[in-house]
RNA sequence: GGCCCGUUCGUCUAUCGGUUAGGACGUUAGAUUUUCAUUCUAGUAAGAGGGGUUCGACUCCCCUACGGGCUACCA
């Protein structure tokens, strides 16, 4: 049976969204767009104790920055299945829990935290699995062991209870994962999971299955950490009688840390100097800032590209993909099964590719932002900015490097590269510089070519070799030893500034 | 500990029984750039181990090792 594709990204607002989560969102988005389906955002905030203010807004802002746009859901406008926040759907879940209860697929449990921990201690002592399951539930306080009137009494007196799934004994549950193929589990290894909590909220398992069904989700694409609970979800679909509507499953491999073992974590980013989050996150309690890709000078297109290639490949040699190209090429069959170590070097390379091929005019806002930060935003005209963009962007890997590399386009140098000065400055230099100022000043047109001609003539007259002096000339103009063509810089600066900077160097450089 | 998933160059990966095991990042060397960054060329480097199946295995099966996930009234 073919049905229209509807996928969802369903994060919990418990803090900043990790790039692993971003990648999950991206794969969902790519899959939906490729299939001509819908991508929706649902907020899974059923755990009130872990709610973090601002996290939801953070998630939305991150996705928008990356160009991962949803058709429906939180942050992108309601669709026909609203609301999309589980806390606002609270009233729905109880009904479905009751349905399971009545059909004998679930039961009430009254065990206290102490009851549970003593059960676990007891079982651990005998080296048995410490779980609430078809065997152990017979010795616990629940509606399967307690007399009916006792259950009724407890319920009516307002005693705390949870609703647990009643797992069948010794049953093989097989499920087909779109990435991994058939995976099977035995219910003997599972436990009677809580579906409905004593605070009146559902757990992930119930809410997730109910909402996916109600929202007509066709494919569940999520992280590998959910693979172990997938059989429970399959069982739930069966118990509800929704097997025909059950979505297909695809469990994505995890993102691992660059060095050593384990899952990628915030600490790795801090230690190795790369971001683990899409945009800056300020912890609302500690005020601690976690650096984001955006603030580190990454371009959203580069982040999308590099994330897409971490765990998926097109089967060709193509490495650079626009979002549209990714949509065109994306299939779940080409998602790999094993976890991928994050490589900061490759991330840098990707960003560099995008910065270099960026249009000059698209780069202007970044330069403008840097100028604002330095109080210089009205000092330069559009044409000048465009030219500097052309020269700066091919030198850098990250937009935030632009000021460090290209500041001399906007402010006069205050320091001069000592190595170059030490190596190239001699007693003949001051006279040469004065000559250059004089000759430049009398030029009518001040272009790259004419500058070079005058420069060369002046050097010849002073008996100085061009190769020896050029780097010092560059340092006089920019303060630094590297950069674009010197004469191009001079043309851009203009005659007056060029002469002024040579004059400055003459006065400031002391040996 | 139990269950589940995984394992090709340092890293991301291609290969869907027969290849000199390919590409990219990194790295090394050279060229270009009168500088730096780029760019270009070349090099470097891999099937975890052991058993099967097969004329033939990186590819299929089993075992072991290693890595990861789950094992909450968290998602």
Condensed summary:
The protein is mostly helical and 511 residues long. 44% of the residues lie in helices and 10% in strands. It folds into 5 domains: 6-74 and 208-256, 3-Layer(aba) Sandwich (Rossmann fold); 91-196, Alpha-Beta Complex (Glutamyl-tRNA Synthetase, domain 3), CATH 3.90.800; 266-355, Glutamyl-trna Synthetase, Domain 2 (Glutamyl-tRNA Synthetase, domain 2, Orthogonal Bundle); 358-409; 418-508, Arc Repressor Mutant, subunit A.
Describe this structure in words.
- 44% of the residues lie in helices and 10% in strands.
- Helix 1 packs across helix 10.
- With 511 residues, the protein is mainly alpha-helical.
- The structure holds one RNA strand of 75 nucleotides.
Sequence-ordered SSE layout with sheet pairings:
Blueprint: E1 6-9, H1 19-34, E2 38-41, H2 55-66, E3 72-73, H3 90-102, E4 106-109, H4 113-125, H5 148-156, E5 162-165, E6 172-177, E7 181-186, E8 194-196, H6 204-214, E9 219-223, H7 230-240, E10 248-252, E11 255-256, H8 266-272, E12 281-282, E13 289-290, H9 300-308, H10 323-329, E14 340-341, H11 344-357, H12 360-373, H13 382-393, H14 402-406, H15 418-424, H16 429-441, H17 448-462, H18 466-478, H19 486-493, H20 495-508
Parallel strand pairs: 1-2, 2-3, 9-10, 11-14
Antiparallel strand pairs: 4-5, 5-8, 6-7, 12-13
The structure holds one RNA strand of 75 nucleotides.
């Amino acid at each position: 049976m073919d049905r229209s594709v509807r996928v969802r990204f369903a994060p919990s607002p418990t803090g900043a969204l990790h790039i692993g989560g971003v990648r999950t969102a991206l794969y969902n988005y790519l899959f939906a767009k490729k299939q001509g389906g819908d991508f929706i955002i649902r907020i899974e905030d059923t755990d009130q104790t872990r709610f973090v203010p601002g996290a939801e807004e953070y998630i939305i802002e991150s996705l928008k920055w990356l160009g991962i746009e949803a058709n429906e859901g939180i942050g992108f406008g309601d669709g026909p299945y609203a609301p999309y926040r589980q806390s606002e759907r609270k009233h729905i879940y109880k009904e479905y829990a009751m349905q399971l209860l009545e059909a004998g697929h679930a039961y009430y449990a009254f065990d206290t935290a102490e009851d549970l921990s003593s059960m676990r201690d007891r079982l651990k002592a005998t080296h048995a699995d410490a779980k609430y399951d078809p065997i152990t539930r017979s010795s616990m306080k629940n509606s399967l062991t307690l007399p009916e009137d006792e259950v009724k009494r407890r319920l009516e007196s307002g005693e705390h209870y949870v609703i647990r799934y009643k797992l069948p004994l010794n049953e093989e549950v097989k499920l087909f994962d779109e990435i991994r193929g058939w995976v099977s589990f035995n219910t003997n290894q599972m436990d009677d999971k809580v579906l409905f909590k004593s605070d009146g909220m559902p757990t992930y398992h119930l809410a997730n299955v109910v909402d996916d069904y109600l929202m007509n989700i066709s494919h569940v694409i999520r992280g590998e950490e959910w693979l172990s609970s997938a059989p429970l979800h399959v069982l739930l679909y069966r118990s509800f009688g929704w097997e025909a509507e059950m979505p297909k499953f695809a469990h994505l491999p995890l993102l691992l840390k660059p060095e050593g073992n384990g899952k990628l974590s915030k600490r790795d980013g801090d230690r190795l100097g790369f971001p683990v989050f899409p945009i800056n996150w300020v912890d609302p309690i500690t005020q601690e800032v976690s650096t984001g890709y955006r603030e580190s000078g990454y371009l959203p297109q580069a982040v999308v590209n590099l994330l897409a290639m971490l765990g998926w490949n097109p089967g060709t040699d193509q490495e650079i993909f626009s979002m549209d190209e990714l949509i065109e090429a994306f299939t779940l069959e080409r998602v790999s099964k094993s976890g991928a170590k994050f490589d900061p070097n490759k991330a840098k390379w990707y960003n560099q590719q995008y910065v270099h091929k960026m249009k000059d005019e698209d780069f202007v806002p970044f330069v403008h932002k840097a100028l604002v930060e330095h109080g210089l935003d009205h000092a330069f005209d559009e044409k000048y900015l465009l030219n500097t963009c052309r020269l700066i962007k091919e030198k850098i890997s990250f937009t935030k490097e632009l000021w460090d590399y290209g500041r001399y386009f906007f402010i006069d140098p205050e320091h001069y590269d000592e190595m170059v000065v030490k190596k190239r400055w001699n007693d003949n230099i001051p006279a040469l510089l004065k000559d250059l100022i004089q000759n430049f000043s009398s030029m009518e047109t001040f272009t790259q070519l004419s500058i070079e001609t005058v420069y060369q003539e002046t050097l010849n007259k002073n008996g100085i070799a061009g190769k020896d002096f050029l780097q010092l000339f560059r340092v006089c103009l920019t303060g630094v030893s590297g950069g674009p063509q010197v004469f191009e810089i001079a043309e851009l600066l203009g005659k007056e500034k060029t002469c002024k900077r040579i004059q400055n160097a003459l006065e400031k450089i002391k040996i």
